[in-house]
Amino acid sequence: MSIVRELNDLLHDHDCVIVPRWGGFITHYRPARLDETRRLVHPPGKELGFNRHLTRNDGLLADRVARREGIGHDAALDRIATEVGDWQSRLGQDGRLELPHIGLFYHDAERNLQFEPDKRANHLKDAYGLRTVAAIPVKRVAPAPVLRTLTEPATATTPVQARSRPWLAAAGLALLLGTASIFLWRAQMQEGTQWSGLDLFGPGPERQYQPPAATNSKPVVTAGIFSVPDGPLGVRTLPLTVNDSVMVTVDLGRPAAPVLEPDSTAVRTPNITVATPAARERFHVVGGCFAVEENAERFLAELQAQGWPARRLTRSGELHPVAYGSFARRDEALDLLARVRGEASASAWLMVR
Questions:
Q1: CA distance 235 to 250
Q2: What is d(CA 321, CA 311) in angstroms, rounded to the nearest whole number?
Q3: CA angle at residue 308 from 304 to 311, to 5 degrees?
Q4: Residue range 18-46, pLDDT digits in tens
Q5: Is 223 helix (H, G, I), strand (E, B) or coil?
C-alpha cells in the first residue's frame, strides 16, 4: 500500500508532516479569494508547501502506517524508506514525480528539487464539499434624475392692467371723514359744551388739574426698639421694651465652640503599582516536531545544553513541537531564525500562533 494515502490524510489534521529522507510538507491557512480575471470565487483552504531540509523523523507518518497496516514501528520505517527510494528512482528516470492529491516534483535547470502543489486538492476540513463558483457581477442601475419645473417669476416689465373703480375711492373717503368726526366729537364733549361752539378743526378746551381732596390719616405710632440685654446666653424671657408688661421668650444662642486647628493638612497617598500585561509570544522558531514526547524532551535538553533559549510548545494534534526560542515580535524571531539556520540547523522554520 502506498504511503501517499496516509500522507494525504495526515495533512488534513496536521500543519506539518515529515517524510524521512525526503522532506517536510507544511500547510498554511488561505482565506477565500476572488479571481477577477477568470471571474471565480475560490473557497478557503490550506496552501501546501514543501521543505526538503525537514528530514528529521518525527514519527508521525511511521505511527500512522504502523496502525493502518498492523505492523511494528521499525517495519513501518522500512516501508517508508522503500517508498521514498521508489520516489527517488522515478524522479531520476522520468525527471518528474506526481503524487495524487499532493503535487508535482521536478528538477530545475540547476538540478534543484522543486515542488508544485495540486491546485485541485484542499486539505482544510472546514471547507469540505465547497467548490469554486462563478462570480457574476451585479449591475447597478443608477436612479433616473428627478426633473423639477420651475415657474417663471413675473418680471418688473410685465404690464399690469389697472381697472378704475371710482366708487371705491368715494366710499373710502366717506369712511375716513365719518371716523374723524366721531373722534373729534368724543374729544370735545364736556359738561356744558354747546353745539354752536363746536369747532371740528380747532383746538379743544383746556383741561385744568384738580388735586385730590385731603383725607384725615391716623398718625403712625413709633414702637420701641427691642434690645438684647447683657447676661448669660440661652433661652430667656424678656420684656418687649423697657418697663413693658409684654414679655417675649427668645433664644439668645449658645457659646461658640472653639475652632480646632488641624495638626497637618498633608494626605498620605499610597504607592500603587500598576502591572503592565506582558505581550504574548506568538512567533516561535521551531527546530522539530515529534510524535513521541520522549524524543521532544531529549531534543529540548540538547538545545538548552548548547545555550539556546529553547522551550516546549503546546501540543498540536499528535505532535510535540520544540522551539529554539519564542518572541512577541516578528523581527526578533526572524533574527533568531537566521542565526539558527547559519549555526545549528538549516531546517528550522517559523511558526506563528
A1: 6
A2: 9
A3: 65
A4: 998 888 988 888 888 787 777 778 788 78
A5: coil
Residue range 123-146: mean pLDDT, rounded: 75
Q: Identify which of 80, 13, 23, 12 has the alpha carbon closest to the alpha carbon of residue 49.
A: 23
Amino acid symbol at 160: V
Residue 305, all three cell numbers: 545544553
- pLDDT value, residue 331: 93
Nearest to 337 by CA among 14, 57, 53: 53
- The sign of the dihedral angle between the CA atoms of 121, 125, 127, 130 is positive
Q: What ranges make up the beta strands (E) of 79-149?
A: 96-99, 103-107, 113-117, 133-134
Nearest to 287 by CA among 246, 335, 346: 346
Cell numbers for 111, please give them. 538540478
Q: What is the pLDDT of residues 142-171, one digit of tens each?
A: 776 766 655 555 454 445 444 556 777 788
Comparing CA positions, the residue from 123, 128, 88 lying closest to residue 17 is: 123
- Could you tell me which residues are beta bridge partners of residue 25? 17, 50
Cα atoms in the Cβ-side hemisphere of radius 13 Å centred on 172: 5
Q: CA quadruple 324, 31, 58, 115: dihedral positive or negative?
A: negative
Number of CB atoms found within 10 A of residue 44's CB: 14
pLDDT band at residue 327, thresholds of 50, 70 and 90? very high
Q: How far apart are CA 52 and CA 112, in angstroms?
A: 10
